[in-house]
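re: the backbone from monday

yeah here it is again, tokenized this time
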């Protein structure tokens, strides 16, 4: 399969021209190795038993390689991280080391943070433009700079197309499989994560089935702020002897260490015109296709469930997964401009905004994601509310939809089909 350009490519090239070491983090199969290999002269694959044994016996062997050196799956031999850190202290020549990791190292491994020596980048699954299925006309960077007016662009993507992309996954290795086989590929992917990758981190899972059930319940909570105790209850229906809350916390930690969970944290504004904001994260998996797979949802079942509601804005699973696809998209595009992605929800739940994109000067872009091709004033009421209470900090109001065209409403809301949004 030919290489698909990623948004992180430009960011990585810029860093390597001025910094000695860059680590690319991200869930297994997201494309870290393929991206890093294009910039490496030497490659050490630590998931290979022979190379791993050599590195475990003699971590400094990485210094004998011709730079730039790619150390793939470095977390399998944690001491190499500190070797890189010390090498950078001795010589800060740019572009010497690339590291990739599909997990944080085992908890018992003592690894220096690398702060000031190794810059870390997060690589997430592919957005629609990276998949090659859309041509963006509206830049998130321009929106953050307040430079998008008038809006323009048309997208041929329909609700069916968005649903297909949700279940098709943004993981390159999954996408290359035929549609008929992709569900099996995703199922196998989750099996390997829970049965092999997590055990490699060191902890013993006494009840692997319970971890799977918890992850499935988490998937069902996509785009909500459900408490972890509620998720645990959903994972153990009818069981009198439920795992302790500490067990649920351990599950969450394991899945976060493999980048499987990718929650959107609550927005805590630097200024304070807003009171009583909730602080719970919104739950998202790294790829909405994994959530759909865990829940047994298919393209057909998702569309059927929406038709049965009679209203695409009633909070269906497809709506939640569309929001999750939007979350993935916004975080990929926000990273190169150092913008932070969070969400807003008042404690009593009367106001909620799916995404707050915050610049370094604390100015914000407010974004809602709605599974509709024909938005109404009701779809933008929370955006209008925020403008009323925080207009000095608000750059723009954006509604991401499944519609055909980008335009601005009479109320000043930028309506942008998700397929037209780009970096």
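seq for it, each position gets an aa:
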């Amino acid at each position: 399969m030919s290489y698909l350009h990623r948004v992180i490519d430009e960011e990585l090239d810029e860093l390597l021209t001025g910094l000695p070491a860059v680590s690319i983090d991200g869930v297994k199969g997201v494309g870290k190795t393929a991206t890093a290999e294009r910039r490496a002269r030497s490659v050490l694959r630590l998931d290979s038993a022979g190379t791993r044994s050599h590195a475990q016996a003699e971590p400094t062997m990485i210094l004998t390689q011709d730079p730039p050196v790619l150390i793939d799956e470095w977390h399998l031999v944690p001491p190499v991280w500190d070797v890189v850190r010390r090498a950078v202290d001795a010589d800060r020549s740019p572009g010497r080391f690339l590291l990739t990791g599909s997990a944080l190292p085992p908890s018992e491994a003592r690894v220096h943070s690398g702060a000031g020596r190794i810059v870390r980048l997060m690589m997430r699954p592919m957005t629609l433009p990276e998949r090659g299925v859309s041509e963006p006309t509206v830049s998130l960077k321009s929106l953050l700079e307040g430079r998008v007016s008038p809006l323009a662009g048309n997208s041929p993507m329909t609700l069916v197309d968005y649903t297909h992309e949700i279940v098709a996954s943004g993981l390159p290795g999954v996408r290359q499989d035929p549609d008929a086989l992709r569900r099996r590929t995703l199922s196998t992917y989750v099996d390997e994560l829970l049965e092999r990758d997590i055990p490699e981190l060191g902890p013993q899972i006494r009840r692997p089935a319970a971890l799977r059930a918890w992850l499935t319940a988490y998937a069902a909570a996509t785009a909500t702020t459900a408490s972890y105790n509620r998720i645990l209850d959903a994972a153990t229906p009818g069981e009198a002897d439920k795992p302790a809350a500490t067990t649920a916390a351990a599950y969450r930690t394991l899945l976060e260490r493999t980048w499987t969970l990718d929650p959107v944290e609550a927005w805590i504004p630097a200024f304070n015109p807003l009171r009583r904001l909730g602080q719970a994260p919104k739950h998202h998996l790294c790829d909405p296709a994994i959530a759909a797979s865990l829940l047994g949802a298919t393209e057909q079942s998702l569309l059927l469930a929406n038709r049965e509601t009679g209203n695409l804005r009633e909070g269906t699973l497809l709506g939640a997964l569309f929001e999750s696809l939007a979350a993935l998209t916004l975080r990929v595009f926000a990273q190169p401009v150092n913008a932070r992605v969070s969400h807003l929800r008042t404690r009593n739940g009367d106001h909620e905004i799916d995404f707050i994109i915050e610049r370094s000067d604390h100015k914000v872009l407010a974004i809602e994601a709605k599974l509709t091709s024909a938005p109404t004033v009701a779809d933008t009421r929370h955006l209008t509310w925020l403008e009323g209470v925080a207009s000095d900090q608000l750059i723009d109001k954006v509604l991401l939809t499944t519609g055909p065209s980008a335009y601005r409403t009479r109320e000043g809301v930028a309506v942008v089909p998700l397929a037209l949004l780009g970096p």
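The longest strand covers residues 394-401. Confidence is low (pLDDT under 50) at residues 309-314.
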